[in-house]
Description:
The complex is a heterodimer.
Chain A: E1 16-21, H1 30-39, E2 59-64, E3 70-75, H2 84-88, E4 94-96, E5 102-104, H3 114-117, E6 125-126, E7 133-134, H4 139-146, H5 152-156, E8 162-166, H6 173-180, E9 182-184, E10 196-201
Parallel strand pairs in A: 1-10
Antiparallel strand pairs in A: 1-8, 2-3, 4-5, 6-7, 9-10
Chain B: H1 9-12, H2 17-38, H3 42-62, H4 69-78, H5 87-108, H6 111-116, H7 130-152, H8 164-186, H9 192-223, H10 226-236, H11 241-265, H12 270-293
Helix pairs in contact in B: 2-3, 2-7, 2-8, 2-12, 3-5, 5-7, 7-8, 8-9, 8-12, 9-10, 9-11, 10-11, 11-12
The structure holds iron/sulfur cluster (SF4) (2 copies).
Residues 89, 91, 93-94, 104, 109-115, 133 of chain A line the site of one iron/sulfur cluster (SF4).
Amino acid sequence: MARPNEAKNGTPSRRLAHLWDESRCIACGACVLACTMTNQPEMMAREEKGWGGLASNIRRIESANEQGRPTLLLVQCQHCDDAPCVRTCPFGAVYQDDDGLIRLDARRCAGCSYCVTSCPYNVRWFHPDTHVPAKCMGDGCLDLIAHDQQPACVQACPAMARDFGDLNDPESSVSETLRTQRSRRLLESAGTEPKYFIVEGS
Amino acid sequence: MTPADLHLQVDVAHWGWSIAWFLWFVGIAGMGSVAYYFVRRSALIITIFASLTIGLLLVVSHLGRWWNLPRTLYLMVLDFDFNLGSWMLLGIATLSVHLVLTLLLLIGHLPALTRRIAWLKWTETLRAQAGYRGLFAGVGAFATVYSGFLLTQAAGIPLWNTSLIPILWVVSGSIAAIAVIELLYVLGLVDANVSAAGVRIGMVLDGVKLLAVLGFLHVALSYGSAGARYGAILMTQGDLALMLWGGVIGIGILVPLAIGAYTLLREKRKSLLAVSAVCALSGVFFLRAAVLLAGTFEPLVL
Ligand code: SF4
Ligand code: SF4
């Protein structure tokens, strides 16, 4: 029984990636809300106990820099090309699909949490009703991209700080941004080949 | 300074007390199976069987979607699609084989059963077969090693990403097995000479465990990433310090060492041996609980 849209022979046709421009972000949280509304609307009034705050596939980390000025980091599943969560899931529930996205086939998930402890970015959270380890992309966003639309966070951002597209396509807007602007990835040393890019500006 | 992004795995992934007990029971059953190679007593095989069964029930009950387990296994077999890179899958396979091997030995130790069900009589010969006992010991040792690699492969928790954990698990599992044999001796189920050898081996292992625990903490504190350091600080100075210094080292290592020395130098008292064994078993549990509960995700912002 095949997993939905599974990559053939382990090589995806596309490499869809998220891009977050921290130099444009105004920290309004619209993407975080849009994510929950689109993917887990039943969680809108409930708290994610592990991280604290709204249950969303986007984790919001607020801090301050050395000068005491507030900083913000938005983190979500990096859709790693070499994902530890794919390696460790004992039942093969976590897989890479043909778009290069790391997905979960809930039919094969027993809720052991190994994928949660295996994620260096701490981006999975347990849905209190289904006990499935949720993360980006949720079903709502997968449905959007299947209909050639952008994910909810990209659509909701009023500052145009988010983008999503195919790294394999040199003409895509994400490829163009990565060619022309400075960017970084989180925990590069972990060797996970993440596909979440933080744009630092030109 | 505490990082802005500090999260314990137990709050997010919920690997808590039931997993600590599971690791403890697997350690007792695993290294107990190695001890069984030398000490072929009914009481020991009953202890191994009980530990393995309770451990497996605990881990299944911990699954957030335990009701879906039959379907996950069915789909895996149906597609002949096994994620052999997953230590958890290797562990499930190992523990299943271990349980079957244990059950066969247990049946062989129950003459009342083999008398009634004649075709089970062949199991009585298993304990005398060195090859079978060797296989049993090997599978048991591998189950203990697996329970260590289960943690080391969890890439999100840097405190665990060290091969010192499987070593610690094997050493402390061996201490637990010896403690079980001491308790069986106190209860009159094992001979005195077996127990005497156990005291000496146990003392050596206590010394090795002390060095391994301190080495594990030193590596995390001195060379670990921020996440590993915070986990080790939790163990040495934070909420888990009492469990580490009092439970793992005080009760789990120093008390058995002192009683062992008294036993070898002065006299052997069953009451003291019982205290030593219970302390050693508690220390083995505290070690697993402390390492598990100290697991912290790598902070993405310091
Ligand atoms: S970010 Fe975490 S959950 Fe997402 S693919 Fe990478 S390891 Fe898996
Ligand atoms: S919680 Fe589900 S998806 Fe995650 S490792 Fe366990 S079985 Fe796989």
